[in-house]
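This part of the workshop introduces the protein records we will be handling. As an example, a complete record with its sequence and its C-alpha cells follows.
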Amino acid sequence: QVQLVESGGGLVQAGGSLRLSCAASERTFSNYPMGWFRQAPGKEREFVASISWSARNIFYTNYATSVKGRFTIYRDNAKNTVYLQMNSLKPEDTAVYYCAAAPSSTTMPTDSGAYDYWGRGTQVTVSS
C-alpha cells in the first residue's frame, strides 16, 4: 500500500508561482511512474503531468497542453518525493491537485484509471 501526501498548495495571484510536493511512503518509489491531476469545482478530474520511473536518473515527462511550458514535474527518488513547479499561474489553474502513483504501469499514463494510489489533494487558488 502506497501512501501519498501532497503539500504546497495555497492562494496566489495570477502570474505567480507555487511548488507542490508529494511524499510517498513506499521505498520502491523510484520504480514506477507518478502523475499529477487536478479537479476544479463542477468539472471532472483532468491530467496535468506525469513522470516516468527512473533508471540512472533519466526521466521522461508528459504534460497536458494547457500547462506545457508553465509547469514542470520532477522527482527526487532519494526523498521519495515528486514535485510540480507551477509558474505563470492563471485563474483557470484553480483546482484541487492530486498526486498519484502507477506501480502497475511502465509508461507515463495520462488516464487516471492507470493510477492505483492517490493522495488526498491540495487546494490551489489563483486570484485574478
Notes: The chain has a mean pLDDT of 93. The two ends are 40 Å apart (CA to CA). Residues 100 and 118 are 4 Å apart (CA to CA).
